[in-house]
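If you are new to this repository, start here. Below is one unmodified record pulled from the training split, so you can see the exact layout before writing a loader.
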Amino acid sequence: MDFAYKTDIGQKRTKNEDSCFANEHFAVVADGMGGHNKGEVASRMVVDVLKQKLTKAKKITKEILNKAIVEANRNVYSKAETDEKYKGMGTTVVCCAWDEKQVLLGHIGDSRCYAVMQNGIFQLTDDHTLVQQLINEGKLTSQEANEYPDKHVITRAVGTDANEKPDIKVIDRQNIQWLILCSDGLSNFVQPDSMLACTEQAKSPSDAAEQLVDMANKSGGEDNISVVVIRF
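And here is the target side for that same chain:
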């Protein structure tokens, strides 16, 4: 396998509050929120904790991934509660780890993970957003959701609740050709079909990451953009 990651400030923001990282065993994207330097601090804290905990693990299991994200959440929550300067900060997180047989996936918020397989591209994460909640309850259709005024309201985030826990999934790796982890600065401006086409044409994960960020910027670049691309 090979991988690449890229983060970009976008066209409209004055600061990049995203953080991302990948190595041969796991990948993570965090999209900070809270304004000023708060979001940047929150997202970096999460990535740092996951790097520390997952790099030390001889084998990354569901329990280890869950524990690492829970600890990252507590750290962000504690800093926001005890330091007035960081009050109200938070971040999303999406993290995946893999071995030869399976992919482990943990997330909180609306940063996403997509899998490219032989028969198409599939979103593996469920957004923790108000609009997704309304879709799940049958109060909105997917088409109506695109025009919903509060579509970016997040219902769950790292650092906003001391007891927040991630959604964890285990997915068979056998049919997965590529994984794409991204912040909503990519997923709001680049459709899955375009992501799929990018992986089909890209010479490498690095090439794909560059192209995806470029596509988001050309579509407006209204947010920070972060992406990790893994090719198995």
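Two things worth knowing about this chain: The CA atoms of residues 8 and 178 lie 21 Å apart. The first strand starts at residue 2 and ends at 8.
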